[in-house]
Amino acid sequence: MNNNITPKSATNEIKCPHCRTVFTIDEANYADIVQQVRTVEFETELHARLAEAEKIKTAEIALAVANSAQQSQQATAKKEAEIQKLQAELKSAGTERDLAVAKAVAATEKQLGDTRNKLALQSAEQKLTDAALKESHAKELALKDDLIERYKDMKAKLSVKLLGETLEQHCEVEFNRIRSLAFPNAEFGKDNDASAGTKGDYVFRDFSDEGVEYVSIMLEMKNEADASSTRKKNSDFFAKLDKDRNDKGCEYAVLVSMLEEDSDLYTGITDVSHLYPKMFVVRPQFFLAIIALLRNAAQDTILVRAELEQVKQQHIDITDFESELEAFKSSFGRNYDLAKRKFDAAIKDIDLAIDRLQKVKDGLLGSENNLRLANDKATALTVKKLTKGNPTMQAKFAELEAPEVPEDKDAA
Fold first, then answer.
1. C-beta separation of 205 from 213 below 8 A
2. 236 within some domain
3. Radius of gyration for the chain, computed over Cα atoms and rounded to the nearest angstrom
4. 304 exposed, middle or buried (CB, 10 Å; 0-12, 13-18, 19+)?
5. CB 221 within 8 A of CB 244
6. Residue 67's pLDDT is what?
7. 63 pLDDT band (50/70/90 cuts)?
8. How many CA atoms lie within 13 A of 258 on its CB side?
9. For residues 254 and 95, which has the higher predicted lDDT (pLDDT)?
10. Structural domain boundaries enclosing 223
11. Cα–Cα distance between 367 and 277 in angstroms, integer?
């Protein structure tokens, strides 16, 4: 049983080494064939068939050698008979036939030598064929052994603990291995912003040499070991991943998943953008491949994005200028209103003060007239006017005005 088994990501093909026919089998039959390759019975059957083929080959070689020897013997006997006949004819014919007989003998010997050479050549070719057949069998066995080893390696890489680490750590280590060579301007790290209520696992952003961001990816890692006893599906995480992508302003969303490992849909890179825009589901071994594909596809838009960023920056500058102008106008208006209210209040206070001063002035002017009248009245006032009509007071004033009489001491 010599089958060339060629596993592919989506289908599995087997090529027959004899008729070179290629036919496709499903995953179940492919797994059964791989299991047969890995069993002792398959190895025993293979060695038995190789031994049987070796016996058949040896028998065929022996038969070919025997046939060649028999043909050579028959040819030799025939030629010897012809030589004897010719020799008899030469003896009877005399000297004239000696030359013809010698020529015939030489030709016969030449034919015999050619026959022997052909037999030796056939024997050598048969040995080369045998060696090639053995080498072919050895290569087929080595190919099957390599296929088994690669299958074991693939299963090891798809184990629950990748390289003894979690899936997130594995992806981070794989990215950091080639960061400086493949993504020198990129940012790749944990999403620690939970302000929107949720957060993803990692965010990838790449920038041009001018610092313009041209691709961004929100990444979520899901390992079967992280789930509870209830089996989760990849589609259970699509809505949250899309929300995280929108909240963090990322262009693409990628779910790196080991869930549904027996699914025929999620075998490599699966586009699920018909459910959520720009979303992909990949197996861990395609983690770097999807980042490189999306990055390379976006590199063609770097120039457009740079121009868009420049236009956006100009628009932002204009908007900032308009905002500053509106803020200045609003601030100036508020200050003008405050100044006008204070000015009006000051003018009002001045008017009130002027009114009060005018009243004080009028009061003072009125007091001056009263004082002048009082002074006039005081100037015109005499004792005679005061005592007019008052005899008592007139007598008192008369006494005051009379000269004092000196007192007589002797009379006393």
1. yes
2. yes
3. 63
4. exposed
5. no
6. 81
7. confident
8. 22
9. 254
10. 183-301
11. 96
Q: How many domains does the chain have?
A: 1
pLDDT recorded at residue 278: 93
Contact (CB, 8 A) for 260 and 233: yes
Contacts of 290 (CB under 8 A, 6+ apart): 254, 269, 280, 282
Handedness of CA 301, 304, 309, 310 (dihedral sign): positive
Residue length of the chain = 412
Residue 239, in any domain of the structure = yes
Asked whether residue 36 is assigned to any structural domain, the reply reads no
Mean pLDDT across the chain:
77
Q: Which residue would you say has higher pLDDT here, 101 or 143?
A: 143
Q: What is the mean pLDDT of residues 100-107?
A: 73
Measured CA to CA, the distance from residue 14 to residue 167 in angstroms comes to 33
d(CA 305, CA 312): 10
Give the residue with greater pLDDT, 255 vs 148.
255
In angstroms, the Cα distances linking 289 to 157, 178, 245, 269, 274 are: 16, 12, 20, 9, 21
Q: Is residue 192 part of a domain?
A: yes
Interatomic CA distance for residues 80 and 85, integer angstroms: 8
